[in-house]
Design brief:
Elements lengths: L1 H18 L4 H9 L2 H18 L1 H9 L2 E26 L4 E27 L2 H9 L3 E2 L6 E4 L16 E10 L10 E5 L4
Parallel strand pairs: 4-5
Antiparallel strand pairs: 1-2, 2-5, 2-6, 3-6
Length: about 190
C-alpha cells in the first residue's frame, strides 16, 4: 500500500512541475485550459467558501478583488510540486482575468493532496502587485495574511482593509499542511 501511495505521489509531482511553471509552459497550460471551466469552478468554490465561513464572506464584501484557485493539486516524494488555475473576480463579481499558481519544493515530503485557496485583494496596491508582476511570488508579497480555520479563528476581518488575505478551503489528501510561501502566480490567457 505504501509503495502505491509513493508511486502515485511521484507521478503527480512529475506531472505538476512541467505543467504549471511560468514562461512558455504557462502558455501551454493556458492553451489546454478553458476560460469557461476555470471561471465556473472558481465561482462555485467561492460561493461554497462564503457559505461555510463567515470571515470569507465579510472579506469578500470589503475586497477590491478576489483571486480564487478552486483546486490546487499537490504531490511528490522528496521533490514536490503543486499547481492549479484560478480566476480573478472584481469587487462586483465580474471575471477580470485568469491565473495559475505553481510551487515546487524539496525536502522530506511524500503524498498527494488537493485544496483550494482564495486571495482577497483588499486595496489597489494589492491588485497592482498582482497585475504588474510577471510572476507574483506570494512569499515576497507585502502585507500577506493567511487565515486558517485551525489557527486564525479569532482574527477579526473588520481590521483587514489593506494588503492580501489568503484562505484555504477543501483540504483533502495524504500530505501534511499547505503553504503559499513559495507559490508563484502567473497570468494565463486560456481559450474559451
Amino acid at each position: 500500500m505504501k509503495l502505491n501511495i509513493i508511486a502515485l505521489a511521484m507521478a503527480v509531482a512529475t506531472a505538476l512541475v512541467p505543467g504549471c511553471a511560468s514562461g512558455p509552459v504557462a502558455t501551454t497550460n493556458a492553451a489546454q485550459a478553458s476560460a469557461a471551466d476555470i471561471s465556473s469552478r472558481s465561482r462555485t468554490a467561492l460561493k461554497s467558501l462564503y457559505a461555510s465561513d463567515s470571515r470569507a464572506k465579510s472579506l469578500g464584501r470589503n475586497a477590491k478583488a478576489v483571486l480564487v484557485f478552486p483546486e490546487i493539486l499537490r504531490g511528490g516524494f522528496v521533490i514536490s510540486g503543486q499547481g492549479g488555475n484560478g480566476t480573478l473576480f472584481t469587487g462586483d463579481g465580474k471575471v477580470d482575468s485568469y491565473y495559475q499558481s505553481f510551487a515546487a519544493s524539496y525536502g522530506f515530503e511524500a503524498g498527494v493532496q488537493k485544496f483550494g485557496y482564495a486571495l482577497f485583494l483588499m486595496d489597489d496596491d494589492a491588485i497592482q502587485n498582482l497585475k504588474s508582476s510577471k510572476g507574483w511570488e506570494l512569499g515576497s508579497a507585502p502585507n500577506l495574511t493567511v487565515l486558517d480555520k485551525g489557527t486564525a479563528g479569532n482574527i477579526s476581518t473588520a481590521t483587514m482593509d489593506k494588503g492580501t488575505v489568503a484562505m484555504f478551503f477543501d483540504q483533502r489528501g495524504l500530505m501534511g499542511g499547505v503553504s503559499l510561501q513559495t507559490s508563484k502566480i502567473t497570468r494565463i490567457y486560456p481559450g474559451p
